[in-house]
Amino acid sequence: MERGEVEGRTNSWASWKTTKPDWLRDKKIAIIARAGPGAPDLDAPSLEQLAGTEEARRIIALVLSGGPLGRPFAVPPGVPEEARGGAARGFR
């Protein structure tokens, strides 16, 4: 965005505040909507609130439903069980 190569992007609210606080302070960006739960210090409507129809709201809810499930970690076929188990234990 700083070089003009894109005109918009998504990021988490926490990440914006951490990585680009000057953009927020200097109003270089405008948060126009949020996906997921709101934050106390973020004044932006949810995508569901912006939906024009019930069908659109349901589609948005479906698309966003993966967020609460987290991000899965995967390995390619053939990785030995001891390596897979070791990686899993690292998250405990």
Précis, in short:
The protein is mainly alpha-helical. The chain has helices at 13-19, 21-25, 47-50, 54-64, 81-90. It has five helices and no strands.
Written description of the protein model:
The chain is built from five helices and no strands. The mean pLDDT is 85. Helix content is 40%, strand content 0%. With 92 residues, the protein is an all-alpha fold.
Q: Portion of residues in helices?
A: 40-55%
What does the overall shape look like? extended
End-to-end distance: 38 Å
* Count of DSSP strands: 0
Q: Rg from C-alpha positions?
A: 19 Å
**Percentage of β-strand residues:** under 5%
**Topology order in helix (H) and strand (E) letters:** HHHHH
Number of helices: 5
Mean pLDDT: 85
Poorly predicted parts: none
User: What does the main sheet amount to?
Assistant: none
**Helices and strands: which structural class?**
mainly alpha
